[in-house]
Amino acid sequence: MRMMNKAVYMLIAVAVLILAGLYGVKLCAQTISSTVIVTWVTVLSNVVIAGASVAAVQTARKWLPQLTTQEGYKAAITLVNEFLKPSDDWKSLDEAIGAAETAVNGWRNDILSLPNEVPVPEIARIRKHYKALQARVDGIGPRQEWLDTYGLKMAVAYEPSLTEMTVRMGRLSETAERLASALAEYVPLLAKEAYLRNKPEDSRAAELQESLWGCRDEVGRLFKEATEHYAVLKKHHTRIFARKPTIGKLFVVRN
């Protein structure tokens, strides 16, 4: 009886071991299957992502230059319409310089016509307009750099006139600034000359006359220089904008 019970226990133990082994094999099979599935899903996902990335790169290569060029032409339009094409600043400055030259000639002939106002209105007018012109000149450089960033450059047909016009704007402004300073020194000398004209024995007369002549030459030279800058500026401005070129004619895409 005891032997029989022992045999039964042994059979039960073997059966349990067999069942446990079969269950373990089943679990391993499921684990292997799941791992394979996950691996394939991961591989497929990577392929999809890589494909999407390639497509995005190809799309960017196709459209990015066009978008960059569009932004570049927007910047070019601003440069032309707000900084290059308007002529009111430098025309107003030329008129102010012309008025000052006429006034100076009148003061030389009639010392009593010298203004009593400080600052002298003619000088104040020149300063007002050269500062406005200089502000515009200062804005041109950065915007030209923007165009370089966007891959645009001046068209060959217009580059010489555009460059010369920009240079002359700056030179006209600088000359007008020096002229205003020279006039501010010259006008008081005219008043002193009138006072000392009838006092040749005054030791200050000779010294004043020397200063007056030097200042008069400087003022005359600056009037002439400003006139020359204005003439060249006007010539190139007309050469460019009389043709009414489109923005695509003025600026082209850099190769």
Determine the number of helices (DSSP H or I, runs of at least 4 residues).
Answer: 6
Measured distance between first and last alpha carbons: 105 Å
Describe the global form: elongated
Rg, nearest Å: 43 Å
Low-confidence sequence ranges: 1-19
Overall pLDDT level: 79
Strand tally, please? 2
SSE succession: HHHEHHHE
Q: Which structural class matches the secondary elements?
A: mainly alpha
Main pleated sheet: 2 strands, antiparallel
Write the layout of secondary structure elements.
Elements: H1 2-84, H2 88-109, H3 121-149, E1 152-154, H4 159-196, H5 203-241, H6 247-250, E2 251-253
Antiparallel strand pairs: 1-2
Helix pairs in contact: 1-3, 2-3, 2-4, 2-5, 3-4, 4-5
Describe the structure.
It is a single chain. This protein is mostly helical and 255 residues long. The chain has helices at 2-84, 88-109, 121-149, 159-196, 203-241, 247-250; strands spanning 152-154, 251-253. It has a two-stranded antiparallel sheet. The protein is elongated and about 80 Å long. The N and C termini lie far apart (105 Å).
Q: Would you summarize the structure shown here?
A:
This protein has 255 residues and is an all-alpha fold. 84% of the residues lie in helices and 2% in strands. It is elongated.
Task: Sum up the structure in keywords.
two-stranded antiparallel sheet; 255 residues; elongated; single chain; 6 helices; mainly alpha; disordered N terminus
